[in-house]
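Researcher: Go.
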Amino acid sequence: MPNAYFFTMVVCYLLIFITLSISMATSYRRSFIETSGGLQNVFSHKVFCGWDFSIATVEAATLKSKNIYNELK
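Model: Structure:
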């Protein structure tokens, strides 16, 4: 009986791994291969992914804020 639990978990992990692999491959194909390496939604990427949360000082935050503002102009 203990082997049944082990093999059940192995099968579950393999199924999850295969599902994630197929999903990531589809996403990669849609994002990079079909667009020929070009970026889509550049504005939303700059707005939602532009901030670095490891900024420790006020001066660095001000500089990063100005940098994002200039990129959006």
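Model: The two ends are 64 Å apart (CA to CA).
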